[in-house]
Design a protein that fits this description.
Oligomer: single chain
Strand content: 15-25%
Order of helices and strands: EHEHEHEHEHEHEHHE
CATH superfamily: NADP-dependent oxidoreductase domain
CATH class: Alpha Beta
Length: 227
């Protein structure tokens, strides 16, 4: 995988949205080429079914998932990466993240496990999520594999300038989740004014802003129907 598509279909479930295989297939059939899930979400099997149900070839879809914080010791990380691939019904994971660098996270164990998974072919690229700048520096320094992506909450109300600088410096993607700040950003007067001037919705302007700032974006599970 040389590049990460600009817009990813996120599959985090909350009280207002339920991910289905049909929603994943719909997203892929209407242009998405990046699907983001996680062990913690409990829906990898549904996401995998949606990938298979779509009309898009598997090789054209970036399937990303994340190791849960309690499964980051060396042997556990390897075991649970294989379990994620099995639940997704795929022969390989395009991108495997560490979901949160806490609980059982130890750079001396977790990062070598990511290297092993990449070397053995189960994982194409490795990434981190929700890291402080010093944790990104450690990952870049200690991984034998290149760090491919760092996923973190990022939007105009939380711009993550230092993490964006590190992404440029170390040549990895910064993947923004919650690009609309759970709807809070839609009420920002400046954004509303820009949207009106451009003949767009505030949500569209926010997504364009995120992609334009050298980032990739993971939208929520309702994304195909959002304005």
């Amino acid at each position: 995988m040389d590049e990460l598509p600009p817009l990813g279909f996120g599959t985090y479930d909350d009280e207002d949205s339920q991910v289905s295989a049909e929603a994943v297939a719909y997203a892929l059939d209407h242009g998405y080429r990046h699907v983001d899930t996680a062990e913690m979400y409990g829906n990898e099997d549904v996401v995998g079914a949606g990938v298979r149900a779509s009309s898009v070839d598997r090789e054209e879809v970036v399937v990303a998932t994340k190791l849960a914080p309690e499964h980051l010791a060396y042997d556990d990380a390897i075991e649970h990466a294989h379990a994620s691939a099995d639940r997704l019904g795929v022969d390989y994971l395009d991108l495997l993240y560490v979901h949160w660098p806490d609980t059982t996270y130890d750079p001396g164990e977790t990062l070598p496990a990511l290297d092993h998974l990449r070397e053995t072919g189960l994982v194409r690229e490795v990434g981190m999520c929700n890291c402080r700048p010093d944790q990104i520096e450690t990952a870049v320094e200690r991984l034998a594999s290149p760090l491919f992506a760092h996923q973190v909450e990022c939007h105009p109300l939380l711009q993550q300038r230092e993490l964006r600088r590190l992404a440029r410096e170390h040549d990895h993607y910064l993947v923004a989740y919650s690009p609309l700040a759970k709807g809070e950003i839609l009420d920002v007067p400046e954004l509303q004014a820009i949207a009106e001037e451009r003949g767009a919705t505030p949500a569209q302007v926010a997504r364009i802003e995120a992609i334009d700032r050298e980032k990739r974006v993971v939208d929520g599970p309702g994304a195909p129907w959002q304005q």
